[in-house]
Amino acid sequence: MRNEEIESSDDNELPSSAPRVGRKYGPVVAHDNDPVVLEMSSFDHGSSSNPLNKVKTSFQPNSGAVAKEESISDDRGVNGEHKESKLELFGFDSLVNILGLKSMTGEPMPVPSSPRGRDDGSNAAQHPLIQSSSVVKSGTMMGVFIPCLQNILGIIYYIRFSWIVGMAGIGGSLAVVALCGLCTFLTAVSLSAIATNGAMKGGGPYYLIGRALGPEVGVSIGLCFFLGNAVAGSMYVLGAVETFLNAVPKAGLFRETITQVNGTAVAEPITTPSLHDLQVYGIIVTIVLVFIVFGGVKMINKVAPAFLIPVLFSLLCIFIGIFAAREDHPAVGVTGLSLKSFRDNWSSSYQTTNNAGIPDPAGEIHWHFNALVGLFFPAVTGIMAGSNRSASLKDTQRSIPIGTLAATLTTTALYFISVFLLGSVATREKLFTDRLLTATIAWPSSSIIYIGIILSTLGAALQSLTGAPRLLAAIANDDILPVLNYFKVAEGSEPHIATFFTAFLCIACVVIGNLDLISPTITMFYLLCYAGVNLSCFLLDLLDAPSWRPRWKFHHWSLSLLGASLCIVIMFLISWSFTVVSLALASLIYYYVSIKGKAGDWGDGFKSAYFQLALRSLRSLGASNVHPKNWYPIPLIFCRPWGKLPENVPCHPKLADFANCMKKKGRGMSIFVDILDGDYHECAEDAKTACKNLATYIEYKRCEGVAEIVVAPSMSDGFRGIVQTMGLGNLKPNIVVLRYPEIWRRENLTEIPSTFVGIINDCIVANKAVVIVKGLDEWPNEYQRQYGTIDLYWIVRDGGLMLLLSQLLLTKEMFESCKIQVFCIAEEDSDAEELKADVRKFLYDLRMQAEVIVVSMKTWDHGDDHAQDDSVEAFVAAQARIKDYLAQIKEEEKQQFMVVNEQQVEKFLYTTLKLNSTIMKYSRMAAVVLVSLPPPPVNHPSYFYMEYMDLLVENIPRLLIVRGYRKDVVTLFT
């Protein structure tokens, strides 16, 4: 499921009678030996067997206040099923029933119902079900390492590497290998970082670049990279055919062309196959490879070793031949490993050659370091072969970094060793004139090298013909360019039409036969793609948004910037003209996509830069919902306390400390607000003075934020205006932070319940998240290091806000020694083990380290457990106060009193009691506890809600009560 569909699922709500679409969990099976599955037993509530009568009166003054019995309106539960939901108090569908993590993993999920239990006539968004994966998935070895190795080990090593050593010398060759190898290594590091920052779909580097730099840049570089792969396949095919015809001249169907070479000490005729032979055999080989590609990943994995093993064996024969060579070798110029040859071949000897590469004073080609870099660089390309097949990998976050870096380091080490060995085994003249020196010195026969050359080039061609169609299909599936809709494929299907198109391009280039004019542009396309990957990692690493949490830790923005700079430098070193051509082509595609393409918000890095730099952010981001990857917490800190502060202290000191804990590395904006009671005209100057004092205090506390003072007749009216108007565009606050009113009962502040409930209801209506801090006085400062755990009681789907807050707390020095525990509250009909496995997989994909514990609840009617708990006394007291309150309102407000479902009130009390006792039992020593905030139930007095909340927070020293706002703030995808 795409991220766009995830967001749409949040905006559409079903009526409470909508059927469930997602998976139903079976009943919990008792596991006596499993300490993870904890059973929450209900407490003996004594009077529950004699439920209090429900009281209902009409709010119509003239109706005579006639009471009548009415069935419980919420018996269906939040999911529309005819059963009681034990977690109904929390308003959202429970975690087990809806399992909000399904929306991020691409699995089908029901659309959440209204948080307040009200009917909503909007229709549910139709989510396409992702097919269950029956496609064979590849691991690190077959999916990444071998494809990269096959693409990197190409024809350059066999027929040109010894010649490069002769031309540049050992020292210059080492510089060439080091420059090209460093470029690909830095690119592989950047690729590893981006690929491990979430689940990765098909498309490889295109997917990574597009999601980091935007759809226009992604499509333009992706299409160029596709063309490079498709044309590179034809180059590999022609190289294999030419080597075969040179090894077996009699296989040629047409007459060979003979070129006489003069002007050298060793004048030999150079024979080249006929162009028509290259065309005929090239078309046949391409068709055979395409049939293998049509066999799918399973067929490719079976065939790949058949191409690679002989190549590795031929390399072994070359090294054996080098060590076995002696000065009496029958071939002229082969000295064996000799220190004299090493000294003679150390320095460079750039010369003018003919088209065959043989030194000729009358030749037309003059070689230098830049030209050799352009000649050798195709020998190190191919690091994207594994990421091109990302849709076919079992675990992209593990396979791509390990496989790509292993292949890069292996081949680079091979090239370094070969430079020393080839420079020490033959004379300079031999290195110049013998293009197949590797075959000459190979043991026991040169035919093995011919086989190695043919199979290595065919293996590279196979990987190109495999990766290019999948890249094109991935671009088409993103639905950015309508012209590419023909290449779309269903999830898990093979891109047959894209394979046909790739084969057509490959055959067309084979028919041309001479790719000398196109091959430099192909190299430019590879370098352009590598530069895009490095720039993507540079931007993401530099911005360091909360969504940037790659599992690959060995990266830095400076390395990515160096890698991108090297790519650009090498492009101009090879040919400035071809560099201009390739950049112009990419620019044209970019311009075409920006005009004809469909808009798509992929949460790219530029959008995150707009947030941080605030440069035309409102115009660029618009008023649409923020993508989860670009989501930053913008807390609205409600400074007005429930009680008095010391003089000249405009805000509770720990509120600023907590606001800083909600930011990653201090990035983000906080809005501190306070309310002055009174008339605006009379208090305007006081408000300005108070705002100035508050701003000064924020700066003193080193908290990035702004101060606002609002004058209103009352706190409720002032807050309602703030929550509606504060902020601008997407820079509006998304989290309301306030202190829990712990003093309301102690100081008998009877107006607090209605004000507190009104604030929460206003936040729900305004679609703002809420974080209520209980125990604010005990909140640690930056110098008080905490140990232990951060415990999350994840009860409802909140878009991942609670998970993200826990991760942000870990980034602070005071909490960096803590570990996260996630307690999932499950109902009695839930499969605890299955839920635990789902949550673990979800947290793994989110790059979050946490221990998962499932807490299972028993039925409400079970009253045999007489478990003693510190909260039972508070529970009994709350029951008594609620009874007194009911009696009071029945006595004092006979004409207009509220509709109270007393059985539901009792059930809500038991919910909070169970949760509080569980927190006290398993999280008594936790550094911080986070729990879901239940919304104020409809038709329940504010006093009742405060009783529920007091029972929930009883005896818990430091608690964050969190409620999300139905928008995902975390995402699995990179």
Would you summarize the structure shown here?
This protein is 49% helix and 8% strand.
Structure description:
This is Cation-chloride cotransporter 1. Residues 67-80 have a biased composition (Basic and acidic residues). Residues 1-80, 106-125 are annotated as: Disordered. The radius of gyration is 35 Å and the shape is elongated. 51% of the residues are buried. It starts with a helix and ends in an 11-residue tail after the last strand. By secondary structure, the protein is an alpha/beta fold. Residues 1-83, 97-134, 262-266 and 859-868 have low confidence and may be disordered.
The fraction of residues in strands falls at 5-15%
- How would you state the average pLDDT, rounded? 76
Spatial sequence of strands, sheet with the most strands = 1-13-12-11-14-15-10-9-6-7-8
**Helix/strand structural class:** alpha/beta
**Helicity range:** 40-55%
First and last CA, distance? 14 Å
Q: Enumerate the spans where pLDDT stays under 50 for 5 or more consecutive residues.
A: 1-83, 97-134, 262-266, 859-868
Oligomeric state of shown chains: single chain
Tell me the number of helical segments per DSSP (H or I, 4 or more residues long).
Answer: 31
